[in-house]
């Protein structure tokens, strides 16, 4: 189980839990990001933050700091991309 | 406010569902734009004719994902659905507009609204996009599963299915079928009842179940505050109710979406068929959001936008200027027998309105391009790219549009801060927008550069000065935002959840219609104020007017031609007018910046609208009216201007330090009545507008003084 912010672009996994006490997470859950949902990190913004996620057919962006409290079970068949080089 | 007997129909839906396109298609041009009482949320309504010939009032509510309201826009939707907006009753039918490519997520909002028990119609829009993605939707089956709630499949962009919507709304009004409510687990049903009772007891008003659900589930206090349930009163009952839910093994904020989504999945079983294929959006994003090409494309798009705003507006601006000059000349010749009325009409009325109208082409073009970027889906990407650069100082990616607009004019920038959900980031953005170098600052920069910097230091330094003036505002604005959000508003970084919608061709009618609405809001807002202030400044520079002054000047200069004498008479009048006297007495304040009394008058007269500085300088430097930045006479008159008293007597006024100090002063000073008024309105209080005015003006004085004093020492 890892934090969503630790996922590299291209990796995906199942949501285990969100921090339900925050308004951000309530918004994410309304969008369908619920425990059990598969979420994929599509990319990081050119300047490193925020990250673009895709789940349930939509793409949203979220700041690293908000992604930190979302716990993910990385899928077994998840690719392990090369970590991005620092610019 | 609907007409008596007219049914009220509201459109609700997620952002990016094409709701506004549907609204425009249903109402045509029969629209009214107003404001909801007490908040800066636009209320769009219109008349729509249904299939049975009945006319209804159609209201386009702001787009939202969930009734868990955080922003003022979202709160308005909850208020409108509950019939809590002043002078508005509960809607007779709610049309929930859904995106066909994402029906499940879109129906979540419908399921929340279902709890209110209002008759509903489901409009599944963007069927064209769904088809290209290989998605099929069984409308009749969905309608059957939803207890006969009418379901329409349409494509508002293509104009397909609009008639069916008119029919479905008529059916909805007649049948009053409601979306079936969810069966809540016992613990939640009990907790909702507990909260409803406590809220009713404390606020002395009926609290329906749907409202009590919001109070129980929502982590943001927006709805509780809206019904006036104080933090002290609600704290214990809400905590107890949430405990009740938790003890049954459910998490209150998570329970609502989990229950709704589980049921919606069952309802949609067999309704949505086909798998979503990847579309062009993914390929386009691979370039536009690429870590190297992304920012480059972004910079190119923004440069292109700016170039268009200035280049395309040039010609219409020149036309308007000519028209204004002609009107002025005509009014002046017509009223030549009554000098005061002549001056009032020509300088006060025509001049004031004209100065304002000249900026209209730029603003229209800016609104047009911003509309295209928004509707195409690029604006969300721009916010995604820029967020990192704004987040450290408490703003967010969405602050970027207002700040960008601010380079053309602060008013549209301030109006576009409404898209920022976080109220504090919104306020901080609004506070920094007036620092952006708007086009009204351009004439004074152009005059100073052309008269002093260009001739002495060459074209290169002239353009450096020009660019520098545009950067200085930004350089001051960013630390301002940082201090404001960190130490005064004390915001934690605002939550930033933004959907990246799929790319779409903007619909010309929608873009032009919105440009028109924004422009008319700008005209009605800024126009009236500029008009009033110009009148006051005109009166201050016109009165008192003693004929003896004119006689004295004429006696003093017998050898000059009539035109030169007339110009000197005008200058003498300005010198002894209220404004001239005030300028002279205030001059010591601006002395450290290197401004003489004429510049001081210019600065003071420009507080209502900074663009008048050039024409004011034209008057005070005895060149008569109608001077502009290209006037060679004005340039040489300024080059020859010398101090007439004090320690600097007989040395030129316009040295490099003075020129730079004057430009810096105009770059930073709050010299725009309409900006101050708009800021007050958007921030919801005059306190913020006053703070902005004092802060900017003080900063302008400090920077101008520093530039002049340091410059005088080292040069």
Helices, strands, pairings?
The complex is a heterodimer of chains A (87) and B (715).
Chain A: E1 2-3, E2 12-17, H1 23-30, E3 38-44, E4 51-55, E5 58-62, H2 64-67, E6 71-74
Antiparallel strand pairs in A: 1-6, 2-3, 2-6, 3-4, 4-5
Chain B: E1 7-13, H1 19-27, E2 31-35, E3 42-49, E4 55-60, H2 72-82, E5 93-99, H3 103-114, E6 120-125, H4 127-132, E7 136-137, H5 139-145, E8 151-153, H6 162-175, H7 186-203, H8 209-217, H9 222-226, H10 231-247, H11 252-268, E9 272-273, H12 280-288, H13 293-334, H14 339-357, H15 360-376, H16 378-391, H17 400-406, H18 410-415, H19 423-432, H20 442-457, H21 459-488, E10 498-499, H22 508-542, H23 547-556, H24 562-576, H25 578-590, H26 597-605, H27 613-620, H28 632-640, H29 656-668, H30 673-683, H31 686-714
Parallel strand pairs in B: 1-4, 1-5, 5-6, 6-8
Antiparallel strand pairs in B: 2-3, 3-4, 7-9
Helix pairs in contact in B: 3-11, 7-8, 7-10, 13-14, 13-15, 14-22, 15-22, 19-21, 20-21, 20-28, 20-29, 21-29, 22-30, 23-24, 24-25, 25-26, 26-27, 29-31, 30-31
